[in-house]
Amino acid sequence: MKSKSRSLLTGCLTKHNSGLGLTLATFGLALLAPAAFADWVGETRPLMGTEVSVYLWSDDPEDGRLALEQVFNEAARIDRLMSTYKHESEISKINREAASAPVVAGDELFGLIQRSLDISVLTLGAFDITFDSVGQHYDFRSRQRPDAETVEDERSNLDYRLVELDQAAGTVTFRKEGVRINLGGIAKGYVVERGVDLLRHRGIENAIVTAGGDSRLLGDRRGRPWMVGIRDPRKDGEVAISIPLEDEAISTSGDYERYFDEDGVRYHHIIKPSTGEPASGVLSATVFGPDAVLTDALSTSVFVMGVERGLTLLGTLPDYEGIVINAEGEVFYSDGLMQPEAQSHD
Question: What is the pLDDT of residue 235?
Answer without folding.
Answer: 80
